[in-house]
Write a structure and sequence with these properties.
Elements: E1 2-7, H1 13-26, E2 31-35, H2 41-52, H3 59-83, E3 87-91, H4 94-104, H5 109-120, E4 127-132, H6 135-149, H7 161-177, E5 182-186, H8 191-208
Parallel strand pairs: 1-3, 1-4, 2-3, 4-5
Length: about 210
């Protein structure tokens, strides 16, 4: 099974991914947790370029870099893990490109779908969770996180409130138009409530396999 988590920065994905990993491992499953961009040497190098660069990156270049990292991750890590019977959980995947570069940056969404399709070569998630949170709340959470880690916001996190509002609305549009299993999670609910909701959905889907 391939599970992806989506949402703007600060929406609580990392916490729930950790809970889900522990829950699935307790049930005897082998779990691989990945992040995008990243998960292998090439993709991590692209991540550094995308997030830490001080240079202005053209939106089209940004899109192609993200999808190049994704193609490498799918080919070298995700597909092999799935073939071995692991459950793969990925923090961001194809929907991030549509939400961030499509709705956020204003690139043609249809073109992004085509580029994504080429990059993933048919590997679509079995379940996608979209964590929905007001931009103001997400910014507050992300600010606390940056303070705790004593690090400044990365290049994407500096894109501005209007960008993230467009991205958030983009995620909801993705869920509305989806022809696959996408679940919108209200990320301002209690952490334990979200954990139970996520685990329940995954459990139901596992039983249907």
């Amino acid at each position: 099974m391939f599970i992806t988590f989506e949402g703007i920065d600060g929406s609580g994905k990392s916490t729930q991914i950790s809970y889900l990993k522990d829950w699935l491992e307790d049930k005897g499953h082998t779990i691989l947790v990945l992040r995008e961009p990243g998960g292998n040497i090439v993709s991590e190098q692209i991540r550094t370029l995308l997030l830490d660069s001080k240079e202005e990156i053209d939106p089209r270049s940004e899109l192609l870099l993200f999808t190049a990292a994704r193609a490498q991750l799918v080919s070298k890590v995700i597909r092999p893990a799935l073939k071995q019977g692991s459950i793969v959980i990925c923090d961001r995947y194809i929907d991030s490109s549509v939400a961030y570069q499509g709705y956020g940056r204003g690139l043609p969404v249809n073109d992004i779908h085509l580029i994504n399709a080429f990059a993933i070569n048919g590997l679509v998630p079995d379940i996608t969770f979209i964590f929905d949170l007001p931009v103001e709340d997400a910014a507050l959470r992300a600010g606390f996180r940056s303070t705790d880690k004593k690090s400044s916001p990365d290049r994407m996190e500096q894109s501005g409130e209007e960008f993230f509002k467009k991205t958030k609305e983009g995620y909801l549009k993705i869920a509305e138009d989806a022809n696959r299993r996408i679940f919108v999670v209200q990320a301002n609910e209690q952490v334990e409530s979200i954990r139970l909701q996520v685990c329940s959905i995954v459990d139901t889907c596992l039983k249907s396999l």
